[in-house]
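Encode chain A's predicted structure.
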Amino acid sequence: MKYCLYITPFLPYPTGGGSMMRASVALEVLASLYPVIVVHTVWDSEAGRPIVLGRDEAGKAVHFVREDWARDRAAAYFTVSLNRIGEIKSLVRNFIQCQEPGSTLDVVYTFRQHVAPSALSCLDLTVPGPPITILDLDDDDANAKEQFVSLHNAAGDTTRAESVRSAVPRISLFRRVLVTKFQHLLLASPNDCRALAQQYPGRTFTHLPNVVRKPNLSAASGTTANPKQMLFVGTLSYLPNDDAILHFARSILPLIREVDAEMAFRVVGMGRSDRVQALTATPGVTVAGAVTDLAPEYAAAGMLVVPLRAGSGTRIKILEALMHRTPVVSTAKGAEGLAVTSGEHLLIAETPEEFAAACLRLATDTQLRQHLTEQAHQWVEREHSVEAARRVISGCLNRNTAST
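Encoded structure for chain A:
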């Protein structure tokens, strides 16, 4: 029996944070081609415990995420705390030895570079030859960290800014070693693929698009969109999101409400930020926190706003909104890595004045909203479906998707 070893620091799960969703798509595709041995690395305090995605406005825990979804798709599932990470090779070896004679690893798939050494340690478990090796970097981590430096400085956290700045050379050096060890290197953004290909001549970086599944529209049945409700969705503890929310509330929302005081800003997402939570006292702002289902949120919103000023990879929440037929206003940075056109799939705005004008325009122009949502929905179904990811991963494995 030929197995695939899949090592991930994020629990594969089809909802929640973007990393969990990306991890779930890889597992779904791999499990359709191989029996998969999943190794989920966790912080020691998280071992064996469900993940709480966040807390609602009343402080109640929302959306416990358990391992059931991933376990149901795995031939074997191991949760390994960081203080036991050196045991991964033994766990995998023992499992394979208990299977039918001749069982081996045919594929080693690694999600994120910091768990790559554990994957590489298992390569000598393969017989008779080396397996196919895949490293999904997800994004250009070093570039993202460099952008975080300015955000930490802007927030007044110079100590954290310096700590992040000093980590960038180590991340880059570590990656330079890793890119020579894996046959296939995947990234969520074509821009990152091009940038890293220039840094590492002779290495090929492949675009594995982020994916969104078709929504459960029954969860939002009976919900009517309010054109004047502006929605932000994202992990609140993620620094670029924290910065974007504050930037919108302080610099863009006042311009909008000067024209129309009924325009409102609703913030939804797992995690916690004290700076974001403090915005609850701001007129027109609601910080809802985590919710069990995003479908009603998208259905009720007049638009998704993505005023990001830093970050890397691609924004899954934009893709989600487009799949739900919710129009989007974003900065160019927020839509970075997505092959979208302003005025055709969404609206791009940079300055606070431009962003405010775009939101006000969407709130009143029904024809524009309909045009954007229809074009964007067709695009996201074509370019960012599970089948799009299946084609890329199957290509790395030299598998014909038509036969799976």
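The chain has two domains: 2-138+179-210+386-403, 217-383.
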